[in-house]
Specification:
single chain; 783 residues; alpha+beta; 7-stranded antiparallel β-sheet; 6-stranded antiparallel β-sheet; 40% helix; disordered N terminus; disordered C terminus
Length: 783
């Protein structure tokens, strides 16, 4: 047997084949021509008046086209058969076609098979005469099949499909039985890839012909228009490519004033480009049966013959029915092939999603078992983007390229649930540099407002693809020296080394990614509901606590003042009578009541902070900090240096922000043993703030927040006390050390920051000073 000649080419970049856009513009569904093995009548309802007819009526029926135009259908059919046609138009065409009709002609009645359908406002009647010739009167015995003939032809092939043990055996049985039914030289199953290219995955061929099994065909061989028509009309038949097209008369339909739409036509004339394509392949007759999956064109049964071959309509119906049954079996077998993988995937999903639901932090849940996140979609690497941070698992591109990659994907993720690619470098040329880890991409947005994305990666799988001819569309110069696209002249096997391509993502993996997103959103919503409930309870408790603190502190002041006053009266009236020990006790009592009054004042002020409404207005922190500096310079003189770096304008309650700065500066002065005290007030620049966000992700600093700092050269704070200092009435030193106090200053500072929706934290080294940072959220930043 002759082996195909192999040409070879290695591509150094993503395959960008020429799309034959000129073919896509060709009006193949409104050609105005049909094939000559049948006739066509266009009918205007409700009278079923013939308004358009094919030119070949004289050859088949003995009357010229002009003799049928504007005549009622009764000139061709009896009343009973017209009733049958009307019933067909009133129902589902696929369920009633074909019709066996007797046609009235000048030479007597002729029996033929017909199909009736509607296109827009026009009804169409197509008539075929089977294997008879124009000089024969009726259908041959081979044309006129009964139900029992149909059953006998289809029973054994369907049983063979059902007994197939696997997908490959099923496809082999399919092509073998179709070839047995229709007698074509070559019958192939042609499966489409996600990119639109196709591959011959099964073939039954005459022994002396070169096999096409395993060859690939470029997407340009079947234009977008052709694919669409194949989803509408599941069988296309061309008995002889050397036919002479038959025109419709008149050219434009008189009702619509437009060419007749032949999308559903079995007789529609094919494109000249297709005829040339078939000639180049050495094919004289062809038949194509669509294989559908989920209403999408999965593949084709392509039948080729080297001689003219007229297949009767009924026999074609057998092949079409067999193809539809085969499509169901193919779907089932493909799903069965993936069953074990899907079972494993379902088990993984159950355990993985359960662990996610039990975690309070989704990011932790996703990364605590890296292999689960990768195996969920069969990836070798993953990157999780959350806010401005990345967490990478497995083999991934460097973090330097992840950010621009996500920026490139954001617009697509706003409209698509998931973006997937098996050749990332084709859409994103920079990906060539890291194709070894990321030629395949599956990307999904969880929450775009939080910059929360998950990206999975697959590495390049370099492969050699054997094409049926050079897949790059050639150009041809016609007699007028004009360049026009032309079908390929050669179909010799042609090899291509395909690079930058990964294994395709399976549907079950795509669905697993969507389920993961739903699980994350479900957990987030549940946590949000729980937090909302806790916030409501906490808010109510805080209100109750503030009210209690306010009432308690207010009511305690009067009796406390009485104790203080009576102690003072005793000292004045009986001081000379009491001994030194008694006087000391009264002095202690007076001192304690005074201290208790200060504590109550602090508590009352603290409760008032929570009860009062914020008077949010623009605040120039440069001016405010200057006022605070002037206040302390009066009492401290030259022993104090307060440096004010450039500060932003924020929105907040001026009196509370002033108190915040005053308390921080007061603390910096109080807890400082240096003879020359230095305090610095400033705002972190964007680069330093970004670095801080990376180093301290637990702070959850929002992008755009203004981070203010107050830094001193004082005694410092031990790390173990960073959180303690903000607790109510908490002092780190003895009561009378460093000027005493109630320990309420930093407690009030934190209350002010919390009320403004911000955060405060400390960085300090014992003996070397302290820096207090507090931030203002983006919502309150410069206006």
């Amino acid at each position: 047997m002759t082996q195909p000649y192999v040409e070879s080419l290695t591509l150094l970049g993503p395959s960008d084949r020429v799309d034959v856009t000129d073919y896509d513009l060709e009006p193949i569904h409104t050609t105005g021509y049909i094939q000559p093995h049948g006739i066509l009548f266009a009918l205007h309802e409700p009278a079923l008046t013939i308004v358009q007819v094919s030119e070949n009526t004289y050859e088949w029926l003995g009357l010229k086209p002009e003799e049928y135009l504007n005549q009622p259908l009764s000139c061709l059919l009896s009343e009973n058969e017209i009733y049958t046609v009307r019933q067909c138009l009133a129902g589902d065409f696929n369920h009633v076609n074909p019709l066996r009709l007797e046609l009235n002609t000048p030479h007597g009645k002729i029996v033929a098979y017909s199909v009736v359908y509607r296109t827009g406002v026009i009804a169409i009647l197509e008539i075929e005469f089977g294997q008879r010739t124009p000089d024969q009167a009726n259908l041959s015995e081979r044309d006129d099949l009964t139900y029992f003939d149909f059953y006998r032809q289809i029973k054994a092939p369907i049983e063979a499909l059902q007994k197939a043990k696997n997908f490959d055996e099923l496809c082999t049985q399919l092509v073998t039985n179709v070839r047995h039914i229709n007698g074509f030289d070559r019958v192939m199953i042609y499966r489409f890839s996600p990119s639109g290219d196709g591959e011959v995955i099964a073939e039954a061929v005459r022994p002396d012909l070169v096999p096409y099994l395993g060859l690939h065909y470029p997407a340009s061989d079947l234009t977008t228009q052709v694919r669409h028509l194949l989803t509408l009309n599941h069988l296309r038949f061309l008995p002889d490519i050397k036919y002479t097209p038959v025109a419709l008369v008149p050219k434009l339909n008189p009702i619509t004033q437009a060419p007749l739409d032949l999308s559903w036509s079995a007789l529609r004339s094919v494109s000249p480009c297709h005829v040339e394509y078939m000639q180049n392949m050495g094919v004289r007759a062809s038949m194509t049966i669509s294989l559908m999956r989920d209403r999408q064109l999965w593949g084709l049964i392509a039948c080729h013959h080297s001689e003219p071959k007229l297949i009767p309509y009924f026999q074609r119906t057998v092949c079409e029915f067999f193809g539809q049954m085969a499509a169901f079996e193919i779907n089932a077998k493909e799903e069965l092939e993936d069953r074990d993988y899907q079972i494993e995937l379902n088990t993984l999903k159950t355990s993985f999603f359960k662990s996610i639901s039990q975690q309070s932090n989704v990011l932790t849940a996703l990364t605590q078992s890296p292999t689960d996140l990768l195996n969920l979609v069969g990836a070798t690497g993953a990157a999780i983007s959350f806010k401005d941070e990345f967490v990478v698992l497995g083999k991934t591109p460097s973090q330097d390229v992840l950010k621009p990659l996500i920026a490139n994907l954001i617009s697509r993720l706003q409209t698509d649930d998931i973006v997937q690619s098996i050749c990332l470098a084709k859409d994103y040329p920079d990906a060539e540099s890291y194709c070894d880890v990321a030629s395949g991409l599956l990307a999904m947005a969880i929450a775009s407002t939080e910059n929360f994305y998950i990206l999975w990666f697959r590495p390049e799988v370099s492969q050699t693809v054997t094409w049926c001819g050079n897949p790059n569309q050639p150009e041809m110069v016609d007699d007028n020296d004009e360049v026009r696209p032309s079908p390929r002249q050669s179909f010799a096997a042609w090899q291509e080394n395909v690079r930058y391509t990964a294994l395709p993502w399976k549907l079950c993996e795509y669905e697993a990614a969507l389920e993961l997103r739903n699980a994350i959103i479900h957990v987030a919503l549940r946590h949000a509901a729980e937090l909302s409930k806790l916030n409501i309870e906490l808010e109510r408790s805080n209100i109750d606590l503030d009210s209690f603190a306010y009432v308690a502190s207010h009511d305690l002041k009067e009796p406390l003042r009485g104790i203080h006053n009576y102690s003072s009266f005793l000292m004045e009236d009986y001081g000379e009578i009491l001994d030194a020990k008694g006087v000391s006790k009264l002095q202690t009592l007076t001192h304690l009541t005074r201290r208790m009054e200060l504590l109550i004042d602090s508590l009352l002020h603290y409760s008032q902070l929570g009860r009062s409404e914020l008077a949010n207005l623009p605040i120039d922190l440069n001016v405010l900090a200057q006022e605070v500096r002037d206040l302390f310079k009066i009492t401290s003189g030259d022993s104090l240096d307060i440096i004010i770096n450039p500060l932003p304008t924020i929105v907040g309650d001026r009196s509370q922000i002033s108190e915040l700065l005053t308390n921080l500066v007061s603390n910096a002065i109080k807890y400082n043993e240096n003879p020359f005290k230095k305090i610095e007030i400033g705002c972190l620049d964007s680069e330093t703030a970004q670095e801080l966000r990376r180093e301290r992700p637990q702070l959850d600093i929002q992008s755009g927040s203004q981070i203010i700092y107050v830094r001193d050269n004082g005694i410092g704070i031990d790390r173990s006390h960073f959180d303690v200092v903000f607790q109510i009435f908490k002092r780190l030193h003895a009561r009378d050390e460093y000027g005493g106090g109630t320990g309420a200053g930093l407690m009030i500072v934190k209350k002010i920051v919390d009320r403004h929706g911000g955060k405060i934290w400390i960085e300090s080294t014992l003996g070397h000073g302290t820096t207090f940072y507090f931030l203002v959220p983006a919502a309150l930043e410069k206006i």
